[in-house]
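Task: complex structure prediction.
Instruction: return structure tokens for all chains below.
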Amino acid sequence: MYKSALIGLLSMLAAMALPQAAQAEYADVVMNNYSDAAGMRPVVFPHWYHRIRFRCKVCHADLGFKFKAGGNKITMAKIIDGQFCGACHNGEISWSVENCGMCHSGIAGTPTQIHGSTVQRLVAPTYKKLGK
Amino acid sequence: MKMKQFFLGVVALSVLPVVAIQVEAAQPPLKEVKAAKGHVSTANTFNRLLKKPMAKNLPPAEDGIHDADNDNTHVLQPPKIAYDGLPTTPFGNYVDWVKALDTNLLQPRYDRFDPTIEPLVMDLDIVREVKSTVPDVVFPHKPHTQWLHCSNCHPKIFIPQRKANVMNMSGILLGQQCGVCHGKVAFPVTTQSCTKCHSKPKPADWKPPQSETSLKDPWR
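Output:
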């Protein structure tokens, strides 16, 4: 009797102590189109940090960022060329691309996503996963 | 031994009436007891959904997405520091971004280089009548044009023409129309945020449209 109660209590405690789902900031974008395959940490883009400094228009109208996580197919070559992130992260408006770990700071294996989105919170998946 | 007992007895006797008087004096009047009933200690509330205490705006190293083994993760600014003093909401980043902009607590640039360029703001409210019983939608162009450019929405997401855009909540929840931003970056679609869009009450004489099936055969 006491033993089963103890086991139950222990298992409850264990379940509480297990790592919880990500609690990242709303609208943090993880981009992992190519990072994992290239042996880099995926990129985490904090929307909140950027919207304090720039309005949506700057990136989404002037720089041509699409409203889709991972939909811009950004590569380091394009960034060094001054496109996408490279329009500001060039050492003039903001720090330059040699600070790899500032963007490539995600946990390896995290899929491309916009964290905390409504689609993520829906009970049933809204799309079929692409085949291998 | 006997002396000790006697001494204790005397002490007890002498103390008793004092205690009794104190108890009488300490008893509060009934009304006060009733008023105190509303304040239940937080230790005795019932967490019936077994919800875990919500952690808001965690620093990058603890948020489950950033790699804590990466040195630069610890250089990144924790959101809580940035949000200090900004107006709050119960959802999203827990920051009311539009209010923060209106009150000049934030002054984000409209142009990449020039901080003096002012946004092209249009103050035009669009009312969309909703078929169901929820209040009608008022779309304010003002806060949207403060952040965005016309070309962000028109003509690709919204056709700039009356009655040309068919939309519903299922589509929005799946990321179409308003859901391109709302539910991803702008305030999310939650039960607490319905009235932010559905803000215009129906006219007093408004009645919900009846289903065709029940109109045809009301006695079925």
